[in-house]
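task queued by scheduler; priority normal; single chain, no ligands, no partner chains; default sampling; output format set to structure tokens
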Amino acid sequence: MSQIRRHSDTPLTAKVQKRLKNVVKKASYSSRYHELRLKGKHPLRLLGTPKDPWAGSIAAGSHIISNRFYCEGQILRNPAHDTGAWEGGEIWQVDTLDQKWAEHLHSFCWLRDLNRVVDRNAARRRAMDLMRHWLAEFDQWHDLTWSPDIIGRRIINWMAYAPLILDSNDLIYRSKLLNCLARQARHLYHSSDDYGRGLPRMRAIGGLILAGLYIPYGENWLKRGTRLLQEALTTEILPDGGVASRNPEDLYRILRGLLVVRASYKAMGHDVPSGLTPALARMTALLKSLIHGDGRLALFHGASEQNAQDMAATIAFSDADADQETGVVCLDGEQSGFRRLEQEGTVIIADTGPPAEVEVSYNGHASTLSFELSQGPHRIIVNCGCASSLPDMPDMDLYKLSRSTAAHSTVVLNDKNSSALRKDGLIGDGPTLVTSDRTEEKGHHLLDMSHDGYQVRFGVTHYRSLYLNDTGLDIRGEDRLQRRMLQTSDNLKAPHFDIRFHVHPDVTVSLQSGDDKVLLRLPNGDYWQFQCAGASLALEESIYLGEVARLQNCRQIVLSGTAADPETVVKWSLRRIERH
């Protein structure tokens, strides 16, 4: 049996010290002394360019040519012009962009999209025009645009798409760009204590390593970047291949970045650091376990579905570059807190861990013991997803709602989250111990789980069992709420429970006769029947946010009751049926 414990919150004194340290750091970066540290030899060329194996979007590239920007389903229009176009360097004058747009623009990841434009001359002109204006505004240290993770991404994108931004006869422009590259690498070299944790840290390290590989005189950058990478492989990558944030999308993006790093070591004739290839193998195996039959990611802790073609390309690239056979899947992520049951095309993916540790829980969800179910390419039971790319609705914090326990297919007590969502965006108090145990015999799978996230408030421990039969067409579940009997006055306050099963919007849902069964019709015409015992059943409205920047209406099955007894048991099943 796996047990995952979550440490308590960071002490207040440590938080104050961290804030004070950040203030001092920012003051030092804007000082004359730091500006002198960024001086050094001017590179005249690149020693090579890293290869980006992932294709950009032709549509997004066309928007850039037309002086607009496209990111995750949204177009950024200029309110100062009727056409919405951003002329010249106007985009770099805006200081009211939200975090996502600012990171997208200043990391220059849009160069991948511009690279897909058929008219190469138009793409180069637009890229260099935007680059000239950016250099005029941000060649010096800036709080946001020079943050380590954005610098790391920008260095890699500038080098990977050097033909778009360096193919110029303007020697002054070329020199300024190459010098800015080197200055940013020096900043990364001197600011390694400021990398943070998780995905931002890995991006910064990747940028420092690639700067050391491809920019002349970068030997010291490469040495420090390699040392930081070896340390991060033990602190950021878990033994089962998961990542500290427990966000499958972070795992996917860190894997992509590290694949480019490994390929670059090889391309430039350097030995790959020990531990990197085994870590990539573990990460790839775990990523496979978090993918449904449609080739896209499961929705846990801030992840969105992602593009199936890019996912497949990433896995193929990882397996091919490591000279390993494809198909290895990690069914038991005992450290990262995910379990996978799979039989005959039916997949169940469950969240069997507490939220990530506080400092890396920035996108975490209160989703412990939630699960998702798919059959073939069709998702059936889902979590709602993440609303980070959508504006809030009137009188509704959509992002906070998407992180709540109620937005996941699991048990909710008294409409309270199993983990606290703090005002600073991190995950506070919640489950301190989560257990899970998966067994398999002759094609039959059983997963037993528990968490204590409701113990302090309600004296309740949630136990959940999921069973998948050998045909993959019979799923049974049991949710047990064991209530610790408190003082007599407290026993009168038995909590209300809701067991929520969010249904994918492509699945048609209807109540059957007697209102005790639900019929689900999949897009391929298959019918599945849901029924329960031990709670009242109802259908309610829900939303689905699995596709980036898109809100879809869907339904949810809700089983409700009161946990008044020492043990309340609710049994439910979902089976495929023949319907004529």
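post-processing summary
- The mean pLDDT is 91.
- The chain has three domains: 38-223, 237-329, 358-577.
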